[in-house]
Amino acid sequence: MKLRFIAAAAVAACTALCVQARKVHTIGDSTMATYDPNTTVTRGWGQMFQQFFKGDVTVNNRAKNGASSKSFYKESAYWQSVKKQIEPGDYVLIQFAHNDEKSNGCDGDELKAYYQSIGDEAKANACDYRGTTASGTYKDYLRKYVEETRALGATPVLVGAICRKYFDGSTIRRNGRHDLGDKFDKIEGGKLTTGNKVAADDHTYDYPYQMQEVAKELGVQYLDLTTATKELYESYGDAKANALLFDGNGSTHTSAMGATLIARLAAQLMQKAGILTENINLTSDLSVNPSTVDLGQAYKGQTVVREVSVNGFDLVPADGNVSITASNGLKVSANGSDYSSTATLTYKEGNLIGSFKTSYEFAAAGDINESITVSCGDKTVTIPVVGKCVELADGVAASAYWRLEKDDNCTVEGPVDPIGETYSEMKLQKYSSPNANTTWPEGTGFDATRKTQRNIIEGESWPAGEIDEVSTRWIEFAVKPAKGTTFNVNEISLYVCGCGGNGMHCKIYYSKEADFANAVNIADFSGSMKANDMMEVKATPVIELSEGETLRLRVYPWYGSAATGKTICLSDVKVAGVAVSATNGVKSVESSELKPEKVYYSLDGIRQNGIHDGLNIVVENGEARKIMK
């Protein structure tokens, strides 16, 4: 009887494991990442992946803009945080190459060491550490992902990076396929040579080929998405691919249609490889993404907009319409501007790759449970819409405000402790009017004489070839609740522009995590920013910041070409909300009761018991300032 009991328990445990919902974790770069439809038209294929699965398989897209195999591994906000989410039975899809090429085939750390060895500090400082060598450090990091994924009881899958749309006539040329063999740099015998070339059958500098070699070496399945996207782009041709598959900002990042087709190719490759075949959804039925629309939390009176992708293949009839109907309270729009209770998407030749937007005004506190019905002929999909309306706690108005007109001092209202402005691979240039032609948004009352803070890259030379944010280059502002309080943040705002040229770009995020993991994007200026045109960034988040937590706001700038002297201008940075007593919940408190004491911080936001050697931040009498010891 005892043996039967043990056997039965083992079978039950095995059965529980077998029916456990599985996750597909996707890690990679910006071509796979998730984007906010309210800030950009760019979409990553990992963002569109969920609709090609059925059953209990969930996609956890953790791809990160600007990541290389090295940076995603070394920066704690990424791989280490993904590992905490991986469970036995899961799959991890690994796609890197785009940013591994940052040093033209060299390893970024090795290139920096080379320049330091010859005394060229300017070039050493300009080196991008993300670069890896295709046959060397790139393969080393791929092995780490494979081994560490297996150690967690999950299955690694290596995925060849999607092509860049680099056409040579009617075909994608060699570097578009991530093979740098036609032009690369290398360090050999203590010397750097540039513009090197090897024969077409020499794959030493071919990243997807070297990834496939790792797959063979370690017995890992490899999905050749590089070749699949090459064939996809070539089937459209340069002009048509650019118009339909890409986001209009270069030859790397895709539109919703391009990302959807690539996600479907990835699912097809998984099916051919025998990976999760019972859960792959490639039928002609309508599919939607996401399958549940999560409006998140919002304040009473706030309107939230979400995007839903709708796809169908081999639809009958060949030409027709898809009707969209929203339940009471929701509105939908096929064009993103005209909202009503119904909308229509038109398709031709049996295929639909489209999207619509849904809008909801949060009118009363409580949970939101609505639905949207998508129909085509006898095919119908019902999409649950969920969310929660919250009311801002009754307490004391609190804010941290950096005017940034003559210095980086912070004006404080109420019980909140600001942490001074900090930089990584950026520095202050000066405070001045951006330009005599500077324009400000209507209603500010500011004109071209208003001074702003100008910031520039360390070394003052922006490197060539950057098409996305650099994870180690940022400008940060941060706040903490004062002792004994909880800070409910409901506003983050600032003004930003480029100065000196139209090539400045930036993305802006906030995060409560110490390592800036799970950051939330509130502005995406991936398209070139018009010089001297100050733009307002304003978000209305629902953030509860408890005592001991820090809210960090970061601006990640890059320039579209090699340039010197170009700056990013910031002004009027503000984090505001309501502070309440941490011990008495939402009980109102007088600001005089919780006036911030004089406190000291290190530059990375760690509270200190006094002034330490070096640069310190002191908060006193409602202002934050930097002091040197």
Question: Can you tag this structure with a few keywords?
Answer:
globular, 629 residues, Jelly Rolls, Immunoglobulin-like, twelve-stranded antiparallel beta sheet, Rossmann fold, 3 domains, 17% helix, alpha+beta, five-stranded parallel beta sheet, 37% strand, disordered N terminus
Strand percent estimate = 35-45%
Question: Sheet bearing the most strands, described?
Answer: 12 strands, antiparallel
Low-confidence spans: pLDDT under 50, at least 5 residues? 1-19, 585-596
Instruction: State the CATH architecture of the largest domain.
Output: Sandwich
> What's the number of domains?
3
- Tell the overall outline: globular
CA radius of gyration: 26 Å
Number of helices: 10
Content-based structural category? alpha+beta
* Helical proportion, percent range: 10-25%
CATH superfamily of the largest domain: Galactose-binding domain-like
Terminal Cα separation, in Å? 75 Å
CATH topology label of the largest domain: Jelly Rolls
Mean pLDDT: 90
What's the β-strand tally? 37
